[in-house]
Known about the structure:
- It is a single chain.
- This protein has 692 residues and is α/β, with parallel strands linked by helices.
- The protein has 4 domains: 177 residues, Rossmann fold, CATH 3.40.50; 78 residues, no CATH class; 138 residues, Transcription Regulator spoIIAA; 161 residues, Transcription Regulator spoIIAA, CATH 3.30.750.200.
- The protein is built from 22 helices and 24 strands.
- The strands form 7 sheets. The chain has an 11-stranded mixed beta sheet with strand order 3-1-4-5-8-9-14-13-12-10-11, with helices on both faces.
- A hairpin with a 4-residue loop joins β6 and β7.
- α16 crosses α18.
Amino acid sequence: MDALGWDSCDIILVTGDAYVDHPSFGMAVIGRMLESQGFRVGIIAQPDWQSAEPFKALGEPNLFFGITAGNMDSLINAYTADLRLRTDDAYTPGGMAGKRPDRAVIVYSQRCREAYYNTPIVIGGIEASLRRIAQYDYWSDKVRKSVLIDSNADILLYGNAERALVEVAHQLAAGHSISEMTRIRGTAILLDSVPEGWTEIDSTRIDWPSKIDAMPNPYEYKDPESQSCATDSSSEKDAAPVDPQAATPIRIIPMPLHRKSDLDKDRTYIRLPSYNKVKNDPALYAHASRVLHQESNPHNAKVLVQKHDTKEIWVNEPPIPLETDEMDGVFDLPYQRRPHPSYGDAKIPAYDMIKTSVNIMRGCFGGCTFCSITEHEGRIIQSRSEESILKEVEKIRDQVPGFTGTISDLGGPTANMYRLNCKSEKIQKNCRRLSCVYPTICQHLETDHKHTTQLYRKARMIPGIKRVAIASGLRYDLALRDPEYVEELVTHHVGGYLKIAPEHSEENTLSKMMKPSISSYDDFKEMFDKFSKKAGKVQYLIPYFIAAHPGTENSDMLSLGLWLKKNKFKPDQVQTFYPSPMALATAMYHSGRNPLKKVTYKSEKVSIVRQIEQRRIQKAFLRYHDEKNWPLLRQALKDMGREDMIGDGPHQLVPAEKKSARHGTPPRRPGGKPAAGRSAGKFDSRKARNRP
């Protein structure tokens, strides 16, 4: 601050990551964005949270504290899917674990409040974004309140929040208070009561009667003498005079009737089941999750409201996606593309992984139920211009120390969704599908990968660039629609192995994941092998799979294990389902119901694997070839009544247990003589005793 001539900061950002000035690190993007708006921005990275003193290091900010846990959820960062403590942290110098607290957003916010009580606190990033309403918390195995309440923050920004954050900053700078900022997209705020003059769609229950009569409106004023609505009198003589300045009462419409009603979208909200209800009723939790995901299209989503005790969580509509020029503006900011010099020579693993990669787009329309990317970044793809991307490749070549000529990735949440959007703007604005590619690829989706193919070709022709790799996950069912793209990918951008994620082989599980049939994998493998052979290369697909996903029976894992053996795959790194906040699969895990369909108390039940031992059994099926897993698998197969799968046959999963030699028959060496140190006959054990 002294070097810059500042006496104070306008905004202080607190993050759980080490500070790396690179556009793949959210804190750098937010800091540079606010700086470009003329604000003086300070950053406190990985502060010691044991007291409030480290949060006073830069003094009190003039406008607000901005809090984030970092690029990852702090709990996912700290614990494995089996709730074991991780021993490293990729976002910390030296990969050292323990430099951020669990539930970092809550802890940091409370320390900032302790340091400067009256300073506004704005929370954001993926940890806050996925906890904007009541959410199931895998680590404590209970439903927790919105993080906005637990953190005691003033406002929550969710999703890619550049626009919302700039708006909040400018309004605070203009002298407005956060309590006045009630209608900023991509924000959640806490209210004492809902505003008047709105229409409420009541979605607090799932057991509506078949015939719904007029519902009593709890917001209407009842005359204490007549017990009727004072404004409902049919007599002009008795009617109260109408005050044109009076607030309009809230109108309530039951969820089953809302499509039959004439609604003003801009003055309508959906009331979710309250925190107390979803905490105690798993079916209502699944229903609330379904509604939230259905209200994710920024062009038709409604405000969501959820009561938390006496307060109302008011979640404004999702942010409108950034246009291409806005995306370019974000990525063209003056990043130094390296860690802060205070870290010296210490390695930051996450930076080493992405320092030569380029993010070309945001968003994902895949809708995989176990993934939270869509809930954070949205389904509508936001793409940078080709010019901006190629310019960044040149910056990497010129600015990154020790650059070897290899771009490690041109991608994003998915490798091959760049500039793939709905063909019709009108249809996109009205669409409520959870996925553009499941159960089938939507006929209105643009599937021509020509822009991506052209980008790859231009990037690898830049002087000084020897190779452009593609490391982001490939949506292979989508890639099948464009063989020219697959040929470009296989010929020039695969270094022997391409990782893809079928996730499972069985339809029973794939339908709960919203993933394509394994036949799509087979079709892609055929195309991959064809183009590899044409290029004169020997290359392999490395498939990823998930065990213990909701809806997965042991019989499904057995079938997957046999599929792996048949295809000669012996996976080393396998994963168990991790219930992350707000994911639809997490709602399945908690409730035992399927929110991909309408939820009722009689609706489809989903099998869930909760016990650690059962989760390990399912994981063992993926590593059927590891002899350490054979005893566990043999017992599981016996319990399933599938002992026929134990043996050395090509269609059996694990070998039978080797029977040890009978007691008293010693092993013999070649020639028939007993092994050394063993007696061939009987002996008198008394001779081995010590004499008295």
